[in-house]
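Example S7 (structure tokens).
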């Protein structure tokens, strides 16, 4: 009995820590992407840069940043909801199985895929923007360009690299933790929990006793 209680506490601790990390990384990505776009008035993840007498920016696909904002916000909303559901399952394990569990695991898997796409977009978008900014100074470090381009009051990109690099790291961490939570819930709910009723039913059967005739 003590071993089962300890295992349950470990399970809850793992899930709470994972969901806290996903909550924090979601806030970090949404904040950094949103602030960068607000300061530079561009979605640097999809912008085209032309090097003429000055830099010319063409915001080719602003919806890219909208997507990279929407997924973190959805994650921030869902993290406490999932935590509440998992705590409910911990208190009433017999009510946390079946169709709801399958839907939760499927939703976690879908969210993991969406975070993979988000992380890939942020990584590729930042790399492309940095390469295009280097047209006047080939090979220059992106942090150097961030601090030494003559930004004006409208296009304020003095912190775009540091902010977007933070978003990139947080997005990949979020993807890893959502994927880990998906695997954890799948193994625990769909495999381990389905074995326990069989074990309990076998434990409840009377042990046959040989009675001499």
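Recovered sequence:
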């Amino acid at each position: 009995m003590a071993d089962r209680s300890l295992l349950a506490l470990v399970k809850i601790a793992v899930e709470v820590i994972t969901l806290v990390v996903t909550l924090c990384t979601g806030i970090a990505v949404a904040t950094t992407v949103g602030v960068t776009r607000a300061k530079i008035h561009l979605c640097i993840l999809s912008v085209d840069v032309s090097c003429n007498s000055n830099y010319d920016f063409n915001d080719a696909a602003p919806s890219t940043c909208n997507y990279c904002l929407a997924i973190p916000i959805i994650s921030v909303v869902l993290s406490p909801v999932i935590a509440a559901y998992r705590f409910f399952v911990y208190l009433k394990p017999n009510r946390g199985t079946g169709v709801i569990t399958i839907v939760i695991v499927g939703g976690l898997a879908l969210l993991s895929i969406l975070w993979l796409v988000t992380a890939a977009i942020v990584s590729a978008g930042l790399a492309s923007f940095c390469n295009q900014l280097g047209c006047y100074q080939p090979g220059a470090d992106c942090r150097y360009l961030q601090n030494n381009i003559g930004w004006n009051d409208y296009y304020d990109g003095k912190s775009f690299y540091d902010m977007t690099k933070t978003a990139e790291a947080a997005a990949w961490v979020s993807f890893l933790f959502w994927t880990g939570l998906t695997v954890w819930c799948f193994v625990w709910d769909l495999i381990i929990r389905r074995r326990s009723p069989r074990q309990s039913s076998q434990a409840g059967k009377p042990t046959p006793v040989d009675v001499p005739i």
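Notes on this example. The mean pLDDT is 82.
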